[in-house]
Sequence to fold (1028 residues):
Amino acid sequence: MNYAALFTATLPETALEIAALLVLAVDLGFLRKAALQVRTGAAAFIGIAGCIAAIWAVYAAGWGGFSAGSDLMLAAGGSAGVAQVAILVLTAITLLLFVDTGFTRNPGEYVSVVLMAAAGGLIISAAQDLLVIFVGLELLSLGLYILTAFAKQSGKSAEAAIKYYLFGGMSAAFLLFGFSYLYGLSGSTSLPRVVLGTYVASANGGAPLLYIALVMIAAGLGFKIAAVPFHLWAPDTYEGAPAPAAAFIASVSKVASFALLISISTVTLHFMQSLHLTGVLGAVRSYPAGARIGRIIPGFNTWPMILMVLSVLSMVLGNLAALAQTSVRRLLAYSAIAHAGYILLGLAFFSWSNASAQAILYYIVTYGLTTIGAFGVVDVVERAAGSDKLDAFLGLHKRNPLLAAVLLVLFLSLAGIPPLVGFWAKFNLFATVLNWGSYGFLKGPLSSLPAENLTLVALAIAFSAVSLYYYLQVLKRAYVMPASDGSRIHVHPVTLIVLVAIAAAVVVLGCFPALLQNWIAGFYPAM
Amino acid sequence: MAWAIYISFAGALISALLPAARPIFVRWWALAVAVAGLAIAVAGFAAGMGQGRQVFVDVLWVPSIGIHFLLAADGISRVLVLLTGIASVAGVLFSWNVDLRTNQFFAFYFALIGGVYGVFLSGDLFLLFVFYEIAIVPKYFLISIWGSTRREYGAMKLALYSFVGSAMVLIGLLAAYTMAGSHSTTLGDLARAGLPVSFQMWCFPLVFVGFAILAGMWPFHTWAPTGHVAAPTAASMLLAGVVMKLGAYGCLRLGIGLFPHGLDPWGFSFIGIGSWRDVFAWLAVIGIVYGALVALAQTDFKFVIGYSSVSHMGFVLLGLMTLNQIGLDGAVLQMFSHGVIAGLLFAIVGRIVYDRTHTRQFAELEPMHLSRRLPFAAWAFVFAGVASMGLPGFSGFVAELQVLVGAWQANPWWTIVSGIGIIVGVAYIWRALQKAFFSDALPTPHELEAEQAHKFAPITWPEYAGVALLGVSTLVVGLYPRILLDQIEPAVKALLAGGAQ
Fold:
């Protein structure tokens, strides 16, 4: 093993860990007597500096990745690069929003746990090996459990953390169990070899074991992205966790988990391409039952099928349950489940061309940004009104017009109203799903659209029409209904600047959708 | 003409930033923005006289998907942009008395207007859709904040109907884009892509119904009366005046323009209905008659006008389904005509009468003897009502006549049944006129005393100006329809040649 190469490849993670230790050292060593404000500011500042250094390191690390022997352990560039930079930027923003919150008397510990969790996120977005994936996931998850419980005075926070931890521990066990089957089938932990090995094994009658493994893995990863039916932790955690932690869970952890799903899908497709099945994952399923390709890879059509089922369940249940919520945080949790459903649709119809990966990353990055902003606004309102119920937002336009305007932009973007960025994310994703047949072996204009894709996209669009209703419920209280308490809400200048900047980014990226698309496409080698 | 869009959005942004405490500033600013928009519309209309399609801007907006920022106008667009200009100025004039959160009111107002201008000028499928959706949200807030009767219900219903309609449209458009090979989204490229007939057969009704929801097609019209009634005057003027036209325009430009074969016969017929064309034409005819009959039974003045809009928009949709030159000419002319006349009717009912009497119930208006106490309102309503009935000399006559002639050529039964709607149209206007203004009962001395004690506020100059603007528009078009038809005819001819047949 080449440790110099390992060091270069993990430079971003190293930068974050050094920053995490530095935060602890400064906070516990030098600032013990300082005011809480100063300690919070210093911790956040060092944390953000660490994120910036790590972003630089992502760019500096090059596109080589890290290999042990002939097996790639950590990828670099491409989807992994996009996800890593996005994770770091989003982490920095959640740290900025942390400056004003004051829910804890231990800002140093909070920031260092955030940084370590972010390092876990960086690892899983690059990981190409089952063990590395598991280590990264655990690093991320353990950090998230701690962050959820960080508001020590709040009973809700503790309750949310224990629920999150129990579900999380269980799903990690499922995931590990599934991984062990994969290892048993293929004799390797490196993703490409696992795919090859399971292919050979399932062709020799091992398919039933593969089904079990895939279902177990879907349960483990479905938990991370809060897909129905593994979503039960999400509403409680979003409601109970301190707002910056909830924003971190809703954005950074989602980006990392979806990046992991993208790399799994990419590796599988890469393998299929090497068999000259230049097509798309789901295409296998579309072959008539007796066709040769359908027979030679039994089990390989299970994965998209599982994703599709999760996707439909998440879209339907997430959107419908959100209609009934009275707490805005729970509403955001169910809306997050619904959004995960849309993205899973993109993963179920993953295509070998980079279009799918890019559309999914575009969606999850912009969603992460928007949702951090939404949690920022909710947090400010919650501290002023004492609750996160819908009625806490009454008359917000009078109590703080700027905050109300930010809320308007962010929620409309989540609902997918153009010209905001949420519209382009949905549009891009659905267009890719519909287009899925034309990447690869089906060239040129289609004679008919794949009915399956069209039905599911229609379902997704129909449910995003439903989602407008619950987003409007919040906006209605902010703009339409009279205030019960007319006092002005004061916002910390840093928080306000961050929130306004997020809203401005949502508008600008929406008006010029090519900006972000080009940036994402820049990470991929020209095809 | 592209500047009409930019000016409206800039106007919206600046209105939002103007101080709420000084409404008079905001009003004059709003009037300036609206007049600037109208001036651009008129100038563009005049400059486009005798010209075909003009392209104003064409840049690649989203290269990876092939979306163009393409603003262009043909005769149909120019007529509708002119209508939007007129309606927006009139709307500002009739909302001169909005004192609550005036800056926000005009911010939402101009966001809506900007979206409407954008839809009429877009030459790209997705640009059009983006502007179309931009127009949804401001409507919701205009109605729910500044509206009246059951405003939150009416606003939410309108927003959800619009969003469901646009979701249907989006599915159809995504499918069409994918089928066409995913290279370009300009309307021209897509129309030339040669989409398979079987595909057009299911995509056409999806897109057509999606847009027709907003055009008030029966049985998807129920948002219209509640929305119109709940809306503040300016918003109901815009809803009836231009927003319903967005739907009809979408039906024409995207429905018929992109999927002409969707109107082909199915190959079998069931009780005389053998194509989507028959289905939608009959729905339009039902809308005409149903809207008129329901309007006849209303007790709320504004509901009468609300249902009359459903009836008149039925003529637009019927005109579209005739698929011949004269019927389509009539449909586009009817869009303009109804926009102006419905605007005038809503202005009289919602602003001039309601803001003084604070009721719209006929039972309460009857003893008020408004013809004596508000003679201007009464005679303006006579004027608008006569125009709405379709008497010669007003724009409604030329438009509906052409639609009916076109419909006769296509299927005489359509014309015959719609004729009932016209007759009932006379009746409901007559009834409204009599109940609201010219009641027979003589005032008792006690009532006379009460009238002396509570005199209505005099008619203000913005009201005179608004009535004059809308009244002159309908009269000019009624007396000299060539002014619009010269623009509409070549555009319709091109559309029929490029699309249908």
